[in-house]
Amino acid sequence: MLVWSVTAAAQPGAPATRTLRGGVESPAAPSAPPDQFFNSNGVRIRYVEQGQGPAIVLMHGYTGTLDRHFIANGVFANLAKDYRVIAMDLRGHGKSDKPHDPKAYGETMAGDVVRLLDHLKIPRAHVLGYSLGAMIAGRLATMHPTRLIGVAYVASLPLLEGATYMDTFAQESVKELESELPFKSLVVALQPPGAKPPSDDDVRKAVAPLVAANDVRAFAALWRGYKTLIVSNQQLTAVRVPSIVLIGSEDISAAGVPELKKIHPQIRTLVVQGAQHGGPEGVMRRPEFIAALREFLANAR
């Protein structure tokens, strides 16, 4: 399941506040380290890094950025106390280039991680993929296991063959992204139960910031080219890199955990009770998440 959020409209790196009960605002979200860029086979990719120790590369979710999914929630800063943390804006997102060719996506996104490690002269690293990033991590683990120390799949699972729901999602996403009302399904999904369906004008106003902050043609190309992220059961079973799934019990992807454990019993799993895919109740904002992640990273070899 992929993360959607109206707050995606915020520009990457922009300061933010969070209103708490009673109208009190929390301090502004932490800012990212200085932007850096590298050339990944002709595509300019943004990344930031901080800290010392074993390297870990963080990959965010669909429509997200490294700022929204790792800086704002404190995950980046927490890990940087003991690790060399590198977060990247996936191609098609944030401040990275946004190709419109479907062939520029799929497993090529896994290749971006290896090219980033080469650029930084890092022989091996942990990787953490959130949502779409977890699917990329799954393909990366089958393509380049010798470059990995450990793999953390967060709020999603490796994209296994036979996942027909993804075909439906991709086809519907492309159709919607190329329509006059991109992201309409997002607005509809966020309506409270029993609410009157939003009018087209309501949708247009709601998604305008999200459309302005992103390249919908690049997102459409991503979903046209996503299939090379799929891994077979045999490919996943062959992976011997230490791996863990960290997911909320209220995340739709949690339903796939039992089947994944049958396919690859060595993959550790933690289902955090009551946690959701993203947002204020998202799994990465729970103390159980960071505790389990840190324990995993400390023991992976």
> Which homologous superfamily in CATH is the superfamily of the domain at 28-162 and 230-299?
Alpha/Beta hydrolase fold, catalytic domain
Number of strands: 8
What is the share of helical residues?
Answer: 25-40%
Question: Which runs of at least 5 residues are low in confidence (pLDDT < 50)?
Answer: 1-26
Q: What oligomeric arrangement do these chains adopt?
A: single chain
Question: Under the CATH scheme, which architecture of the domain at 28-162 and 230-299 would be assigned?
Answer: 3-Layer(aba) Sandwich
Rounded mean pLDDT score: 90
Radius of gyration: 18 Å
Strand order of the largest sheet: 1-2-4-3-5-6-7-8
- Name the overall outline: globular
H/I helix tally? 11
Taken in chain order, the helices and strands follow as EEEHHEHEHEHHHHHEHEH
Examine the coordinates and then state which fold CATH places here, giving the name of the CATH topology of the domain at 28-162 and 230-299.
Answer: Rossmann fold
- Beta content comes to 15-25%
The CATH class of the domain at 28-162 and 230-299 is identified as Alpha Beta
Task: Write a structural description.
By secondary structure, the chain is an alpha/beta fold. It contains eleven helices and eight strands. The protein has helices spanning 66-71, 75-79, 107-119, 132-143, 164-177, 184-189, 200-213, 216-224, 233-237, 257-263, 287-299; strands at 36-40, 43-50, 55-59, 84-88, 125-130, 148-154, 243-248, 268-272. It has an eight-stranded mixed β-sheet with strand order 1-2-4-3-5-6-7-8, with helices on both faces. Helix 3 packs across helix 4 (132-143) and helix 5 (164-177) packs antiparallel against helix 8 (216-224). The model is unreliable at 1-26 (pLDDT under 50).
